[in-house]
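Apologies for my clumsy wording, but can you show me some protein sequence, whichever is easiest, together with the matching structure tokens, please?
=====
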Amino acid sequence: MGNSTPFAMLLLLVMVVIGEGHVWKITNTRKKISTTNNNSISKSCDLYTGKWVYDSSYPLYDAANCPFFEKQFGCEKNGRPDKNYLKFRWKPSHCRVPRFDGADFLRRLRGKRLLFVGDSISLNQWQSLTCMLHTAVPQSKYTLARTGGLSEFTLPAYNTSLMLLRDGFLVKIVNKKIGRVLDLNSVSQVISWKGFDILIFNSWHWWLHTGRKQPWDFIEDGDKILEDMDRLVAYEKGLRTWARWVDLHLSSTKIKVFFQGVSPDHMNALNWTAPNARTCVGVTGPVLSATNNGVVEQHPAERIVEKVLKQMKKPIELLRITPLSQLRRDAHPGVYGIGGHRLPDCSHWCLPGVPDAWNHLLYASLYQSTSSN
């Protein structure tokens, strides 16, 4: 009996160690699962810090197979000779994002309505998404219609529609006796933003327009009528008007609202550190050495967007496209847009191209369970 006691104690110790190991595994598994769920990305997973990597399987679609392509974005068709810009994929540093799956995206969108609201940068992203989804189900019938500023792409087999409402300011421009007045106190749409399951808003580029491109003559700020004001100040006031409307009218948890971050342009090399290039023209490769927005300081409009969104009651997800897009000075139409050599385009993006990455991140934010590296 005395000889069996040490053996029994040893056996008990082994059982405890095994048991503790088993308990640790269960606890660790639960912790890992708790960071993600079936419909959303882990909150600890930063999609927007990463780098562009060469991927020979890119692009995700062939522009020639997208029959409703806008000419201004079709750089290949417009004669761009280099193809390297098509071969880069955004890779987040701290999480794994599976390859874009358009068929899965459509299954999840079944019976839903998605609306982009914004300027021609929204058009850029909307066009990208329609091509990505059409490529995924090329045999599926679709309809495409435009009425005024509203464009609608529908896939009847999925009972879903992707719409674009052109709206550069999100606040009203009113015709008055004195002229056209940009009213910072009133949103531009009251009914047109309602009735959607997913909304992606955007506004920035039109706030900078002057001269003949400026679509207003005066600014109304509270009870004051001004000929002009600091555009960043006006932008923030306009965004706060939009934010109040969204908090009041789109508060339902069933409605998902995104704000497309500020899309950077590359018209002035002083803003993006390129000693050998004054604009985007002739640039054929991305900045590969940087992993975030380290090449330039944060865009001032992006700071305003982040501040306004943080103060809203409605949880709004920011598609923080600014830093990753700043690295792609090579991906604009340049002289291969509709302006040609006379008016090179360093604001919009070639398609296929950078907006495809924005939509991949939109898809990940909406539906994919990603995992941390």
Notes: Residues 116 and 122 are 6 Å apart (CA to CA). DSSP finds seven helices and 15 strands in the chain. The radius of gyration is 25 Å.
